[in-house]
Amino acid sequence: MKIQNIELDWLGHSCFKIKTKNKIIFIDPFQISDKDKADLILITHSHYDHCSFQDIDKIAKDGTIIICTADSQSKINRIQKKIEIVLVEPGKEVSLDYVKIKTLNAYNLNKPFHQKSEFWVGYLVLSGKTAVYHAGDTDLIKEMSSLEEYSKEFYLIALLPVDGKYNMNSQEAYKAALIIKPSLAIPMHYGSIAGTESDAKKFVELCQENGINAEILQKP
């Protein structure tokens, strides 16, 4: 899907590919067959369906920059190519010549899977007047309210988990979209580990019924 100055593809589960200014960015690659090599890879946390060594190794090349949380580093260190690793936690910013990356909190409130004390992240990818928010694995958390300011200045795309087991369910993700006020909301984290297409459809229906532009992306 071409949106503003970027191309955005959903590759399944929580994996997205962003093309901007002849650069290729992957977020949480998992079980992908994509042939492109990555200029930049963003890893939200160390769980196997988000930090998959096999998939990261497949798309990495000499010169790839990998931004990740500290707990993900041991897997990524096994990559034999000449990569650069940048460690982050919530509240950090990384500026490259073609994109700016900001990290946000991502955690569970009443589930044991993603503790706030782990310092795992979601990402805000800023390119020109387009902003892509990848929520990572998270519940509906208060920190999401900070994203509304970006909706005023950028074409803001919100990628939100909807599975309801490890993350928000469809209703909660819809409430997150109400808070964030994105230009476009897209469901993720369904169809493989947890969550179904029905969860994604319910999320989109709730958004559309209440004036939020939302869409399910199909795998290319």
Structure characteristics:
30% strand; 19% helix; Metallo-beta-lactamase, Chain A; globular; 7-stranded mixed sheet
Give a written overview of the molecule.
The radius of gyration is 16 Å and the shape is globular. The relative contact order is 0.14. The strands form two sheets. A seven-stranded mixed beta sheet has the order 1-2-3-4-5-6-7, with no helix packed on it. Helix content is 19%, strand content 30%. It has helices at residues 53-59, 73-76, 148-153, 170-180, 197-209; strands spanning 2-3, 6-12, 15-20, 23-27, 40-42, 65-69, 84-88, 93-95, 100-105, 121-127, 130-134, 155-161, 184-188. By secondary structure, it is an alpha/beta fold. Helix 4 (170-180) crosses helix 5 (197-209). The model has no long low-confidence stretch (mean pLDDT 95).
- Major beta sheet, strand line-up: 1-2-3-4-5-6-7
How far apart the termini lie comes to 9 Å
Helical coverage, percent range: 10-25%
Structural class: alpha/beta
- The CATH superfamily is identified as Ribonuclease Z/Hydroxyacylglutathione hydrolase-like
The oligomerization state is single chain
Reading the helices and strands in chain order gives EEEEEHEHEEEEEHEHEH
CATH class: Alpha Beta
The tally of structural domains comes to: 1
**Overall 3D shape:** globular
In short:
By secondary structure, this protein is α/β, with parallel strands linked by helices. Helices cover 19% and strands 30% of the residues.
What's the helix and strand layout?
Elements: E1 2-3, E2 6-12, E3 15-20, E4 23-27, E5 40-42, H1 53-59, E6 65-69, H2 73-76, E7 84-88, E8 93-95, E9 100-105, E10 121-127, E11 130-134, H3 148-153, E12 155-161, H4 170-180, E13 184-188, H5 197-209
Parallel strand pairs: 4-5, 5-6, 6-7, 11-12, 12-13
Antiparallel strand pairs: 1-2, 2-3, 3-4, 8-9, 9-10, 10-11
Helix pairs in contact: 4-5
